Amino acid sequence: MLTRLIEKVNQTSKMSFWHMSRMMDRMMDEYMKELAKNGRGGIAPYWRDADHSILQVANEAHKLVNDDKKFAVSIDVSQFKPEELKVNLDGRLLTVEGKQEHKDDHSFMARSFVRSWTLPEDADPDALHSELNDKGQLTIEAPKVGSSSRSKKNIPIRPAERD
């Protein structure tokens, strides 16, 4: 497209400025029409043709349980050693991090991840615990509090006092 534009400008270099201006307007209109074919204002977003299957793999890499008895997360961290993992709780924000680096004379490789979840209000952050099994599954669990003490209660509706 740009080479065609340059060729037309070279061909018309002997024309008057007005003619060249009109030609540039037409070429720009053609260019914008071509861009518009790609959709949304003329420029196709860079992610349009991206392979989103990796996102699905990331979503399947963990299992989440949030029922009446517990909040639990299970993550496959089999590519990481225990010393390369961190589990932190900041308020109600649970964060799992993994970071590893391998260096030798000819190469350097780094791999990392961060996953975060907000603990539900009825999860007990003080009873939060984690386990790493020999297959590389990290499980973090917090029991729910007060679920058994909460019972259904009828709230009577009283008439408002009259003035």
From TrEMBL:
InterPro entries reported in the protein's UniProt record: A-crystallin/Hsp20_dom (IPR002068), Alpha-crystallin/sHSP_animal (IPR001436), HSP20-like_chaperone (IPR008978)
Renumbered residue ranges of the record's region Disordered: 124-163
Stored PROSITE patterns: SHSP
Gene3D superfamilies in the cross-refs: 2.60.40.790
Top-level taxonomic group: Eukaryota
GO biological process, one term: response to heat
MF GO annotations: unfolded protein binding
One Gene Ontology term, aspect cellular component: nucleus
Coiled-coil boundaries: none
Domain SHSP: 53-160
Family: Belongs to the small heat shock protein (HSP20) family.
Name recorded for this polypeptide: SHSP domain-containing protein
Species whose genome carries this gene: Cylicocyclus nassatus
